[in-house]
Amino acid sequence: MTQFKIKVNPRSSMRKVENLGNGKLKVFTTKPAVNNEANIDAMELLAEYFDVRKNNITIIKGKRSREKIVRVLKQGSGG
After folding, report:
1. pTM to 2 decimal places
2. Which residue, 10, 59, 65, 70, is most buried by CB atoms nearer than 10 A?
3. Burial tier of 45 (Cβ tally within 10 Å: 0-12, 13-18, 19+)
4. What are the domain boundaries of the chain?
C-alpha cells in the first residue's frame, strides 16, 4: 500500500499522469469536474499507470478538491 499526493487537472486536452517526484503526481483528464467525472477518470488513469485494478485506487482525502491524497493497493501475486 502506497499513498500519493495528486493534483487533478480536469478538462485538459489530454489524458495522462506525470510523476513530479517525492510521491507527487499530476493527473490530466479530459472530463469535467462535474458529477464526479474527473475523479472517476483520474482513478482509471492511475489504475493504468500503476497497472492495478480501478478498485485498488482510493481517494482518502480531497474528493471535492483538485489536490487529493490517494492510496494505491498493489495487487498480490496470487492467492
Report:
1. 0.89
2. 70
3. buried
4. 2-72
